[in-house]
Structure formats: C-alpha cells, structure tokens
Amino acid sequence: MPDFELHETTTLAEASDLLRRFGTDARLLAGGTDLLVDLRSARVRVGHVISLSRIDDLRGISKSEAGLRIGALTTIAQLDRSDIVRERFSPIVDATGRMSAPPIRSVATVGGNIVSAVPCADLPPILTTMHASVILWSPEGERSVQLESLFVGPRQTTLRKGEVLLAVLVPSMRARFGAAYERFGLRDGNAIAVASVAASLELEGDDTVRECRIVLGSVAPIPKLVESASAALVGKKPEADAFREAAAVAMAAAEPICDVRGSAEFRRELVKVLTQRALKTALQRAQETEA
Amino acid sequence: MIRTRTFNVNDDNYTVAVSDTDSLVDVLRDKLRLTGTKKGCNAGDCGVCTVLIDGEPVNSCLMLAAQAEGKSIRTIEGLATDGELSPIQKAFVHEGGIQCGYCTPGMVMSATALLERNASPTEGEIKEALSGNLCRCTGYSGILRAVKRCDDYRGDGTCAKRTQTSDSQAQTGLDHGTEHDPQSAIRNPQLSSVGVPIPRVDAADKVTGRAIYTADIHLSNMVYGKILGSTVAHGRIKRIDTSKAEALEGVLAVITGKDVPDTMYGVSPARYDEHVLAKDKVRYVGDEVAAVGAIDERTAEMATKLIEVEYEELPAVFDALEAVKEGVPQLHDRYERNINTRIDHNFGDIEKGFAESHHVREETFTGNSVYQSPLEPHAAIATWDHAGTLVLYTATQVPHYVQYMMAHVLHMPLGKVRVIRPAVGGGFGGKAETTPLDLCSAILSKKLGRPVKMVYSREDMFHHGRGRHKQHMKFKLGVDREGRIKAFKSEIYLDGGAYSSFGVVTAYYAGSVLPTLYHIPNYKYDGYRVMTNKPACGAMRGHGVPQPRFAFECLLTMIADDLGIDPVKIRRRNAMMPNTRTINDMDIGSCEFLATLDAVAAKSGWNEKYGKLPKGKGIGIGCGGFVSGAGYCIYRGQVQLSHEKGREPFQKKSIFPHANAVVKISEDGTAAVLLIGAAEIGQGSDTVLTQMCAEALGIPTSRIRIRSEDSEISPLDLGAYSSRVTLMAGHAVSRAGEAVVEKLRPYAAAMLGCDGSEVVARDAEFFPTRAAGFSPRGATESCRAAGTAGPDEVGSPRGVPEASQSPTPNSQSPIESVPWEEVARKYFNDHGPLLGTGCYKPPDGLGGDYKGATVGTSPAYSFGSAVCELSVDLETGKVKMERFTDYHDCGTPINPQAVHGQVEGAVVMGASETIMEDVQFDEKGNILNPNLHGYLTMTIKDAPEIFSGLVDSYEPRGPYGAKEIGEGSTLPVLGAVAHAIANATGIWIKDLPITPERILKALRERKEASVR
C-alpha cells in the first residue's frame, strides 16, 4: 500500500480541520472497506488518512418523534440487527441484509456507504424512497440535505470542504406507506448489485397512489430518483398495468454502463423487472400498515 | 509513520511497532507470527483472513492494524482451550468440513461468531453467516454439516462418541440438507482401516491454524521478491531500465531476461517454450519481464513499478478461431499459423457410420475461460546451502516435476535440488507446473546468498495460474433408430494462450476420454490447440475433458429429445461395459456405469419429474468418467536426462516407477512412518495413503505418521494430477507395508509356534491364520498382481471376503497372538532398522499405436452420473441450483467421507463454472476481472443440496479395489446443469457460462421469433 499518514481524531472539529488543511490529499476513514481497497489499487492516492473511529458523536441509533437518527459510524451489521429498525423502519433491512457479506457488514458504516457515492451502494436507494436526509457537520454548524440532493456523480457529492457526515435521518413511516428494495446480483452471496431498485408508495383513502418514489441503483452515475416513473403512478390505482407502465419509464430513465457484470441492455431489462417487484412489495407493505 | 501499538489478541497483549499503512492481517501474520489467519485476496472478497473483533467477524485484510488497537482480537489460534478443540472445531474435523484447510480458519471464525450470537441457527442463518467465506474444495457440504451438528460436539466425551459413530453411521443419518448414501458406509469387514470414513489426518492442524503453508514460513535473513509483468499483450522489449528500482532504498537485486538461463522450460518436453523472464518478446499482458528482491514485500512491489520497460508493440490476437487464419500475427516462430498442436484422429469409418445413421445432428458449443482459483495463492521460498543444494519450499501439486524442471533450467543434477511442499491450499491443476516464482526465487536467492520468498497476489494468479482452456467445439453425432451411437465427429479449437504449458496433453485429452463412457464405433477427432496473446492455459480438474463432455452430453440429450427417447434410456443403450477395449484403444476394466445411471435415476425420482415439471423448474442429467492416473509419465526415459542427451525412443512401458514408498518402523515397534512424495493438496491423499499403509501393516492408522512433504525424505511420486494418487501411490504404499510384514513373518511365526506363511497381522497383533479363521485378504492378493495385469486379467474375481461372518480375533476368548510392536522390536534387535519399500509402475503396453495414443491411457477408469434440479427466474434469467444427485463408480472407496467430499466439491465447482465463471478480457488483452469480486465462484448460499452415492464396484488393478474420484466427479456436472436449464426454459444454451444474461437473451429472442 502506498505510504500515508494516519490521523486518529477524537473530535469532529479536529477531523474537519485536517480535512481543510490537506484538501484533496486527505480522505476520511470510517470502516475502510472501500477506502483500503482503493488505496491499495492506487485508485485513491492521498498522503493523509483521517480516522473517525474514535469520535463518539458519530455513533448510535436513536428514535425520536420525527424519526430515526443513524450515526454515521453505525455499522451495517448494527443497523441490520437494530430492534428499532426491524420494528419501525423495516424496509432498510432489505438492503442491509443482502449487502456484501457479514465480515464486511460488521465494519462497513452507514456513513461510508452513503458518502462514498459509489453507484452500486445499497443504502441510498431505499433510504431515498423513505425521504431520508443527511446531517452534515462543519465548524460553522450543521446543515441538512435530502439524500437525493447529495449525489452529483460517481464518487462525487455536494459535501463542502471540511464537512463531515454526522448522521442520517429517516422520517417515521406514515400510515399507508410502504417501501421495498430489490437487487440483482450474479450470485446469492456477497455480490455487488448489477442493478437495484427501491420503490415506495403512499396510498390515499380511496386506494389510489398519493405519492410514489422509485430510485435506481447501479444503473446510473448516481442513485437515480426517477420522478417521471413516480408521476406515472400518482393518482392511479396501484395495479399491475400501472406498475408495468412505471417500470417502462424507469427502464427508459436508466443510464447503465456495460462492464464485467453485465451489458447495458441486460441492466435495463433488470430495472424493468425489479421495479415491478419492488412496487408490488411496497404496495403489500403499505396495505399491511392498516392492519 | 511507525508507531508503537498494543494489540489484545486471544487475551494476550502484544506491543509492536507498526506502520500506519499496515493492515491487521499483515501485523498478525508477519509481526506476531500468528499465521493461522490466512491471506487470500487482500480485498475482502474471500474471507480467509476473517478474525473476530469484539466478537464480530471482520476481514483483517480490510482493516488497518491501527483500527484494531484497544479491541479484543480473536484468531483461530485462540479457539482451542488447553489443547482441547472447541466444539465447532471438532465438528469441522469430524463432519468433513476441511479439505485444503486454507479457508478453514476464516470459516471457523465466522461460524464461531454466529454460534456465539445464536446457539441454534437455521440453515438460512448459517448460510448467511458464512456467505463471505469462499471455499473451493468442499462444496460447502461438510461445512454446513459441521455447523448444523456443532451441538453434538459440545461438552466432554460427546466428541469421542461421535467419532465412533462416524465410522459406521454418521455418514448415513442426516435428516435434511446435504447427505450421503448409506450404502457408502458398507465396507469389507475383513479390512480394519480401508473403507473407514476416518477424519483427515491433518484436520486438527488445519482447524487450529497450526498447518503451515508456504507463505506462512519465515526464514532468517529472508528477502522478498516480486515479478514485473508485461503491460502489453504482444511486443518486443526494446529497452529495460532498472536503475530507478535499484536505487530505491531496500532493493537488493533486480533481474531481467539477461540474468536468467537461455534454457527454456514448460511441461511437454517437445514444446518447452518459456524463458524464466522474457529475453526478447512478451506474449501476453503479465508475461514475466523482471523480478526484484528487496527487504520487504512492499519495497519489492514499489520497485517493480520503478522499472522502465519500452516495448515495440506488435499486433496481437485474442481469439483462437482468428489466430489460425492466414496473415494473423504469429506468437512463436515455431508454431505456424499459431497452431501449437494438431491432432487428426480417425477410428473406424466415420463416413460409413454417418451414412448408416438414422438421425444425425451437428451443433456448435463454446466453452469458457475458467480459472482454478484455489484459495491459497502460489508461493515459493528458495534458499541455497553452502554445498550448492537448492532448497525450494513451494505450493505445488507436483513436487517431483518441479524438482526435475529446476534441475533442467538451472543445469544441475536432480540430487542437488530439494523440494519441500508445505501444506497446499488447493490446486485443481493450477499448481501442477513449475512457476516463475519457483525459478525467480531460486535465481535471486543464488545471487543474494539469502533466502527469497515470493507470493502471488490474486491478480498475479489470474495472469500466471494456467486456467482451463476455452474450447470451441463443433460436434456431429449420428445414431440409429434406437439412439445407439453410429458415428461421432468432433472438431475442437482449444484457446491455449501464449505458451504450451500442458496444452499438447490437454488437446489429446479433449478427444481421447470421450469414447471411454459410451460405445462409439466410428470416431473422428480434429483438434487444434492454438496460441493467443492471453495467459497460458494448462490443466484443470478433468483436464481437457469437461467442456467436450458438456458438449457431448448436451448433444446426446438433444438427439434423445429429437427421437423421443428418454435421456436416461439413450445413455443406458450406449453405456460402456466392463472389460472393453474402446475404439481408440483404451482398456476399460471395471465399469459400473449402468449402475450409476440406474441409481441416480431412481434416487432423483427422474421418471416422476422429467417432462412433468412446471415452467421455470428443470431437471437434467449428465454423465462422465476419467482416468485413474495417466498411464505414462509426462517426460519419458530416465528420471533426469542430461542436457546433451537426446530423448530416448518411445517405449510402451514405464521406464521408472511412478509411485514409490518407504515404511519405517520405530525401534520399539509402536509407530510407523510412511515416506512418500505424493502431494497432499487438500484432496486427502495423506489420509487415504495412511489408511492403506495401516491396512497393509496390520496396525491402526493412529500409529502411522506420513511424511510426504520433502523430496529429501520421501521417494519419488509424480504428484497430484490425472487423479492418480489413490491408485498409484496406494499400490506403492500397500506394497511397502506388505514388505514390512513379510520381514516380520518369521519372527511372529517363531513366537506363535507356526509356519511363517501362516501368520497374519491385523489390529496391531500377529495371529496364526488357523486360530483366527482368516482367509487371505483378497485385496492384497489382487494388489500384488495388479502391476502386471494385462487386459485379459481385468475383471478377475472380486476380493470379497469369505469369512465376513467369523468373529473378529479380539472378541474371541483365548486366542494365541503376539503384539505387533513386540515382533517388530525383536526384528530390530537382530537386524537394525525395519524398513519396507514398495513401488508402482503402470501396466506395460497401455494404449494403441497411433500418434498420441498414450494420452487417456490409464490402469482404470471411473464412471459417474449426476442429476441436477434447479429453477430459473424467467424474468431475470437467474438460476437457483436446488439439488444434485450423484452416483459414482470410484471402485471400492478407501475413505467414503473423503470420496463424498470430492464429489461435493466437484459438484459445486462444476456448477459454478457452468453458470458463472469466466475470465474476461478487454480488446488490449487485459483481464477485466482478475479478482474475486469480478471473477465469481459460488458461495455457500449458491451451492445446491447434494446427495452423493457410490455404487458397489471393485477394480482389480486398483489397491483394495479403488479407482479415482477427484477429477472424474467434475465431468457429469456441466452437462447436467446445462440440460436442467434447457429443461426449465425450453432453450439449449450452448455457450458457457450459462449466465442470466444469456438465458434472458435467449428467452427474448424466442419470444421475438414467435411474434414474427
């Protein structure tokens, strides 16, 4: 591994200060499951690595009236096993339970999975459909950004210089709201998603769709919120035909690449199938909330 | 920056200086010398480095050591308490959860984390918990059994109880999940050690992290080496400037083509076409250009990046069908039109055969570029002593050929080369050649006068690993009205990559083994092994045969469908029978192929399912068989030829024995040491050889230690390839054991007061035959005769015991007997060392008289049939393997647990290569997926449930009736999977791997065609 200096910070201020000082020559280290691979392969070359793991402010999962607050250093395994999550925010488990493999999940963090802005990350799609936002910390104060506004390209976000992702906020799920995440990997265990789709539905009293969100993973430079696909459903009865129509819109909106995991054509096909499956499960879950 | 840090590992505190950049795995292994934690991919993909951090499983390669400071770190070394294995460790030992052992520490740590959190996990939870730990040997079956049955191994005494039952029952009584055939546990009651499913002799070492692999070894004053590979696929080296690399602090030596011998090396003597480092041309991306020796691995790696190489790039060719065309760039001057091997085999009258056929079908199939991907990366450590002897530690399956090749390239006598084979973490053919690591470490070590260690990265493995040949196959099959084969024509282009490697043999195998399974009266094979600018291909499990076998099985089933004949029936009608000489002159001895077909059809419920499953569900059949050891050595003539001397003319007999063993008895007679060079690579050869040795000596396996790792100690054995060890080394071992008993007979007879010919050794005692009521041991008799048995003798009466009902000597009231060790001690007092030797040469005269007739010859052949059941998601193309039923004729099993372990591993490896494995290249010849997240192999979540059964069989030419299982078990799998997918989707996909994308495309095309 190329040489770097490790800074083991204990406060947000310290981490932020180092980030500003070293600029592009520094990276934050949370779980490290992506960063270490990138450093080793020289995709990332920096002289300074700033470890966050001793900053207690970044830890913990808590529930308030507004919703769920997930500290950025929460590991995927902790999120997956959290009783609050399993009881009140269960769609998240669709992603955490199938992401990578246990030895990665016990180290990889929620903050890392989001702020790395890798197009195939599993948490951003489902969290976006659940209207999650992130809290960004800097010495100037905290600001909140809706998840869909965070990503600008592969490995690029709207974070400002010196900002640290503090926590993720997921609003409590309303009645008649359901969300689901579907992913396709080339094998059942420990596979990167070739395509993934998260969908959420909120139903009106007359069972038509009040609101819908469809977010695509692995098939665009960023986790892609397809508003046109949602629009195809709003005001309609959530039925197979309508889902098919929304899926066709989602498929058209995908901007996949060809790589070792599959061609663009294959990925588009998957988007169509996964969108319908995610919508179906989301609907089922929305209907279950009434029971 | 270097800082002093304290790590709490297994409750001990270690304070060491570590760099900020050090990963936890490197600190554990290199600084704390806790080498039980393995290193496999350095990218978090394989899981062999899994340790527990505060109770959670973690890939220690993806964690900086600094991140682990202040936490509780647990490694495999910390699981056993006061020498007592933990319940999960015991379960892995006894349930067959271990083969090569390289994944074992990580696997056991993941299982431990699971069971500490959840004492009684469901099968789904177990699979999820272990999904980050790859295994390439076991098919995950034994691992799953171990975790499920862990409770049986808790508390005192239960393990011992379990051990006893595992001999007779543990193989049988599984309620669900992967299981074995109860029949398999039935064994010859005359035999004490052979036929018993004992745990591996190296299991305890492997499950505790004590087993030492090459990369675990640290020698004093050791230097680390790295190889620089070419960045272009085809080019001439114009200039190499090593000055910057040499100037880097810590760099001790840089070598290039000018520093290595001119002697070329390879596998097939007629086609040695590789230099240790490129002299002039490079022929693939990764071709070895230079090597560096430095004080540590990191420095060596950095130095390779400082070497400047200027290439004159040449046009390259990457496709075997393109490469043979006129005007295409030539890789080697000596191979015209890039054709490295051309085979033109004609048996019978092919045209007449087709003319007489009722139905003829021709299809084209394409194979894939499969990589063995053992979990353990290749590694070598070379050092020279002051007398000029080279000592080479290497991860190899063929220590003798490495020894031979080192002597050849370095121009020294074989006797000056000592090869030590530490534990090997899987080979599958990928470690069947002398590697650039072996040669470069030896050259660097000589230059520096210090030991040199070199280990491949996972990416290096893909470049230098010698994977399976991708084959382009055009097959034409003609049958009569009943489906009986009349004629078969095969045209195959094998994509060989840049060098010969095993390729000549591979190309012959691709043709020669097909007629051993079915009667083919007229057969033509056109084979072309073609050079392309890609990594060289070599031998992989089933050498050359799996892809043609896949194609043949598919075509036979297509024809069955065309004629409305059941696929099992068409196979029955064509099945090979015992004692047959095939059209291409292979001598088939024992053959229970029909029995495997009937058993697999009955057990899988074939008749109830085939053609009656709902859409998306499929069932398919595939068959296959393989040689039990190659009939001829890779090189001919003396063990080592001098450089000046030409090759000796070919004779149809072995010049020297292929397997040799020495048994040495301790002075007090209580222990035997078995010395044999057979390579234990995870397949279990140390265990079955120990069992056969024990049987021949008449003492329990627990009194035998095997030393197979050192050429200095153990006599020559050709190694682990062509599925040869059980049969060939088994003979050598049992003969060596018998030689010892022969020496003891007079002593025992004197003590027992009978004639020497009337004593028998068994269960650590000598008995007079009359008192014990023994009949001569049939296996032993046939074993003696086997070496010289001609084809006529094949099929001689089985060595079934006559006295199976007679009480065992131990349970008889007063019977005259003397303890074995006492007899041995008396012998030592009179004569000194008690030794027995044994050797094995394959029978003379194997094979026909045409060019290439030797390839495919063997003393014996295995047979097997497999049924695959799966489902296909018709919307995404995703295949879910559900269940495999497999029956094999492996002769009489020496260790049923080991046999089933091979089958289970082969099923998963074979299924994996059928649906997901393919090395992919870009248009410049770069590998796109030289890692374990791009090149996927099945995880425990992808593996099917497997039922492995054995049919009753006895091979007169095998030791105790045994044949092979390791490679043959792969062969039925590919065809069975392909058929099941066709059955589920209604479409034959003839290109491997059968990926979801290909399935979806085929479904779409059919839909579009039907619309039109």
List the helices and strands and how they pair.
The complex is a heterodimer of chains A (291) and B (1012).
Chain A: E1 5-8, H1 12-22, E2 26-29, H2 35-40, E3 48-51, E4 61-63, E5 67-71, H3 76-81, H4 83-88, H5 91-96, H6 102-105, H7 110-115, H8 123-129, E6 133-138, E7 141-146, E8 151-153, E9 156-157, E10 164-171, E11 177-185, E12 193-203, E13 209-217, E14 224-225, H9 227-231, H10 240-253, H11 264-288
Chain B: E1 2-9, E2 12-19, H1 24-31, E3 50-53, E4 56-59, H2 65-68, E5 72-74, H3 87-94, H4 104-117, H5 123-129, H6 141-148, H7 158-168, E6 179-180, H8 203-208, E7 223-229, E8 235-241, H9 243-247, E9 251-256, E10 281-282, E11 288-294, H10 297-306, E12 308-313, H11 320-323, E13 339-347, H12 350-355, E14 359-366, E15 379-384, E16 390-394, H13 399-409, E17 417-420, H14 436-448, E18 452-455, H15 458-464, E19 470-479, E20 485-497, H16 503-512, E21 523-531, H17 546-563, H18 567-574, E22 580-581, E23 587-588, H19 593-604, H20 606-609, E24 617-624, E25 659-665, E26 672-676, H21 685-697, E27 704-707, H22 725-752, E28 759-762, E29 765-768, H23 769-772, H24 778-786, E30 818-819, H25 820-831, E31 834-840, E32 863-872, E33 879-889, H26 896-915, E34 945-950, H27 971-985, H28 996-1011
Parallel strand pairs in B: 1-5, 6-34, 7-18, 16-17, 20-21, 26-27, 33-34
Antiparallel strand pairs in B: 1-2, 3-4, 3-5, 7-11, 8-10, 8-12, 9-11, 13-21, 14-19, 15-16, 15-18, 19-20, 22-23, 24-32, 25-26, 25-31, 28-29, 29-30, 32-33
Helix pairs in contact in B: 3-6, 3-7, 17-27, 21-22, 22-25, 26-27
